[in-house]
UniProtKB/TrEMBL annotation:
Superkingdom of this protein's organism: Bacteria
GO molecular function annotation: hydrolase activity
PROSITE patterns according to UniProt: TAT
Listed InterPro entries: Amidohydro-rel, Metal_Hydrolase, TAT_signal
Stored Pfam families: Amidohydro_2 (PF04909)
Name the record gives this protein: Amidohydrolase-related domain-containing protein
Domain Amidohydrolase-related span(s) in chain numbering: 42-320
Amino acid sequence: MSTPQLFTRREFLAGTGMLLAGTALNLEAAPFFQAAPQEPIIDIHQHTDYHDLTTEQLVTHQRAMGITTTILLPAGHPVNYGSTHYGVSNGLQAKVTPNEAAYKVAQQYPKEFLFGANEVPDVPGAVSEIEKYLKLGAPVIGELKFNIECDSPEMQKIYQLAQAYDVPLIMHWQHKMFNWGFDRFHKMLEKYPKVNFLGHAQTWWANIDKNHTNQNVLYPKSKVTPGGITDRLLRDYPNMYADMSAGSGLSALTRDEEHARAFLQRHQDKLIYGSDCADTAGKGEACQGAMTIAAIRRLSPSKKIERKLLYENAKKLFKLKV
């Protein structure tokens, strides 16, 4: 049996220092020291100046949620028209600013933000105003949140523009408030089969339930029976998609989680994440957008479906190079 080699305190400390120095020099080469790469998330529904949220607060909020690409949806310009409830719903009824504001933020943060295109449909020059920003690279029109019939001539001109530029539209469905005629919207899907529409907001999400008969109820809490108008539109029309943003989207997931899992499975290629929240937290229960991400992760039947909802479906539909 050999005698163990003994080290003085000075030799021990010197050797330890060399070991630590060598370890530090190789930190980048050691895989277990590297941070896991962030999974990209695309948020298709945010706004500039949303309820007075500053640009700095918006940027901080999106980063806190883990969003890697955000599409900013502008408002139309303020007008005293019936389509804006004579000014009451200017700014998408949320102080949202028009195209030029969304475009400016996207120019300031080109790696994180994109801009949409929008205008009040029945004002003179609406089509040319939207087209201006489509030519600048807007990947979407909307959100279309106006007090107007969904099949009116003015709205159809915008659908035709979307078809010409091959971009989707986001529509805010709210009974007796915005986009009238939800029960006959299928006719527009049939008339414009090359246009991809995304449904959003209270009336859209309330109607996942076959038993939703009182359209005045915007946030139903009951269990869901499959086969509602929304469920059928997603099933029957290849050009119908869903924007999962806002409290209405989160409520649709959480009011009946057993149904939600089947719904996500059934429409996994049609559902796209958006936040549409104006808080400053960006995380936890104070942030509806973060709560929606958490619900998608919890309720998705598989990791593959989760990635579709949070990233892949948006990238494909909006033709994003991110």
